[in-house]
Amino acid sequence: MARTRNDILQGTLALLVLKCLDARGRMHGYAITSHIQRVSAELLRVEEGSLYPALHRMEQDGWVHASWGTTEKNRQARFYELTAAGRRQLAAEQESWGRLTEGVRRVLRYA
Amino acid sequence: MNWLRRIVNVFRPERLSRDIAREMDFHIAERRDDLIAAGATPDAAEREARRRLGHATTQRERTREVDVAAALDAFAADVRYAARALRRTPGYTIVAVLSLALGIGANTAIFSVVDAVMLRSLPVRDPQEIAQVFAGGSDAFTNPIWEQIRDQQNQFGEAMAFSQHGFSVSANGESRRLAGDWVSGNYFRMLGVGTVVGRPITQADDWRGCPAIAMLSYGYWQTEFGGRADVLGKSLVLDSHPFQIIGVAEPGFDGVEVGSPSRVFVPLCAEAVSRGKGSALDRRSSWWLDVMARPAAGGSLAQLNARLAALSPRVFAATVPPRLSGAMEKEFVSRQLTANPASTGISAIRQHYGRALYVLLGAVGLVLLIACVNVANLLLARAAAREHELAIRSALGAGRSRLLRQLLTESALLATLGALLGLALAWVTTAGLAALLASVGRSVTLIVHMDARILGFTGALAVLTGLLFGLAPAWRSALATPRGALSSNPRQMSGGHGRLTPAKLLVCAQVALLLPLLVGAGLMVATLRNLTTLDPGFRAGNVILMDVDAQHASTLSASQRADAYQAILDRLRTLPGVTAASASDITPIGQSSWNDVVAVDGYSPTTIEDSLANFNEVSTNYFGTLQTPFVLGRDFGPADTRGAPRRAIVNETMVRKFFRGANPIGRVLRVNDGPTIGPPTEVIGVVKDAKYGSLREAAPPTVYVSLAQDTSADTGFSFEMRTLGGVNSVRAGALAAAHQVDANFGVSFASFDDQVSRSLGAERLLARLSTIFGGLALLLAMIGLYGVMSYSVVRRRGEIGIRLALGATASGVRRLVLRDVARVVVLGLAAGVIVVLVASRALTSMLYGLAPNDPTTIAAAIVALALVAAIAGYLPARRASRGDPMLALRQD
């Protein structure tokens, strides 16, 4: 199974999810959506249809660990937290995202 | 780890789906709460929440795909689905699986016998290197030739020699034969066969004047000695001499002759112990050894042959047999040693049963094809019934290959079930088959077992059949366009009202395959009948044969032996229950024969073959006992004794060939014994032709000489006793009679009938099994035809209802359906007859007394087939004619 299908959005989604979990700890899927939206000042909006396949893939890849838990509203939700492999993956993705934006910035400036 | 989890997830689909659904539901609930908090109405919030997440099922499936091994998941789903579909229609499934199981089981069983007889490699080291050595085209060697080869084997690799020998062992006064081998010292080393207990025979054991030692086969050790280790050092009495047991061969090794497993192995040199003065070790004209060779390490068969050829002149120059004419000696020394591959060992039964087994393999192949056609038909009918469902799935976006895969999974599941059941069936029947082979023929002992090869064969069959019967219906279904299938009611969809549908064409094919099978079976049965009812020139019923072996009563001189035989015969004639008794050197349809060149004045043969006649040496009343009538002249009488002039009785063929049909009484013949011409022998009688060695062969020209005039009586003789029945009391009396004359004589009994019938082993095997397979195929085809016609009648219910409503009579409807059956069957028969005429020629050499295109047999097969077809077709026809027209019409 391909690790990422080579569309940027997909890759970016993984990066954002990993970052959220790194910053905030254990979260369920809906909270991740809301968090990304809030932190990005509504600039970014997670396509909800892509979220769960992405989360499950990250789980299969061992970047996140999932477990069932109870929310403050007393609902059963599936919570995700970062694993050690996920933290390494986050560092790698941040690094490559930095290179990507730097590259794009340079092209936009000097081309 | 992940893979493991994904594979695990495949097998707990419900739990996985439930978890995913729960997670999605939670998401929607949270979103809805937020939307309501932002002021939306509950309804709108719910709708919006669902809209944002996207199509629920797609969403779930996409998520699920991540969690499972997709290909495996699809496969597992297919298998589950197929299993459910098969469970829903148990009748269909049972018929299909049983058809396949019978077909595959029969094939596996026959193949395992073919494998055992023809194909399996010897259980020795690197069997592919083993070659059999021939001398001038013959596989027999004298010991002097073998010793030449043995002493020069370092020039080509390694060679060993052996000779099969039936060791005489005594039990309860009767002697029996224990199959064994004289083996050269390096026999076990060359073959790479070791021992489980004790040590093998080695070169150090093989020297002139060696002591008598023996090795046992594992099987013999188990059955005769209970596998006890203390057997070592014990002695085994073979041919009346004690042999010390030194070891037990590895399990599975029974010598290199397939079909007659060796129980004991004795060094070649010990032949002198057993045969004493009659030893063949130094005889240059006793051809009794087989030689096998293995090329030197890394060498090829070609190299082996080249080295053997180079060696040949020296070997043969040193071993010229005595008393050869100049031309014959020249021919002898120019002989060449050659080697042929023999990785599967050697076997006398191969030529006898080989063809029969391949014919049977062909027959079971046809049975399997017929079974496949049945299953294909059932699948086709189901596919037609499921066209609607498949069309819907196709319209909903299922890919063609996905649908095809699904249908093939069902076939594969059927094939697998059929193969498993077939394997079980074969497991049960192969032992019986080996026993049948052993019981119908002469001394055939087959070790048939299931191994990876057999399992592989069955597996390959299953795959092949699954594809064969699965592909066509699957392809047809998958090609169906959604539009066409959806546009109408499923029941009306398919045409084929009385037309030749694919299903009916398959039935045609079935009939065309079945006819050759039935004709073949008929030919085999007729051949066996011809052979068992022909007049062999003697009456075997109620005759007991007693073999007396005086080989080990070695203190008797030849003339003393002859006197002893006469004494036994005199006693036998006085036994109660014996109406006539005689003695002879050879018994008809036995295993031995004797021929010699005969010279008759006025007859000048052009070839050696034309000057040969078969011989037997018989006592007085031999012809009376066997009930072979005299045509002319008289039997041997009390006056024909050792001192009197030589006398002979000849058969009719001898008269026709050597005496040009003239009355031979009083004429003289001479027997060419090597370069010398025997004494003049006067013909005193002519008897009717009697079969000599084989029921199939016409009686050869035969000369019967007088036992009483023989001065060099053989070490073995047969006695024939015509009895009133009461075989056991006669046996006991006869045994006592022989032992009263000499307690050292080895005695064994057989029924003459049994001896004659065992010569027809291959024929009996073929007749029995081809009848069974023919019946099986007939049953399968009947089921197939019944199924197809029943289905066709169901489909035509509407049409038939209208006909009945419009005034058609029940018999008219029956005729309508039966006409349909007849058309299918006649078409199939026409094709079948062509197949028969082309293919049955392959059977020519196995037939007796009829041609492969025997019209009676073909007609009988056609009638049998037509009858079965009529029965299979009549049942659905009757059902169709009894239907209530209103009921049928209302259904559409």
Structure description:
The complex is a heterodimer of chains A (111) and B (892). With 111 residues, chain A is α+β, with helices and mostly antiparallel strands. Helices cover 61% and strands 14% of the residues of chain A. Chain A has four helices and three strands. In chain A, strands 1-3-2 form a three-stranded antiparallel beta sheet. The longest helix of chain A is centred in the C-terminal third of the chain and has 27 residues, at 84-110. Chain A starts with 7 loop residues before the first helix and ends with a helix. Chain B is elongated, with a radius of gyration of 38 Å. Chain B folds into five domains: 2-68, no CATH class; 73-120 and 349-494, no CATH class; 127-343, no CATH class; 501-524 and 769-892, no CATH class; 551-744, no CATH class. Chain B starts with a helix and ends with a helix. The model of chain B is unreliable at 488-497 (pLDDT under 50). In chain B, the strands form three sheets. In chain B, strands 1, 2, 3, 4, 5, 6, 7, 8, 9 and 10 form a ten-stranded mixed beta sheet that branches. A six-stranded mixed β-barrel of chain B has the order 13-14-20-16-19-17. Classes of the chains: A alpha+beta (111), B alpha+beta (892).
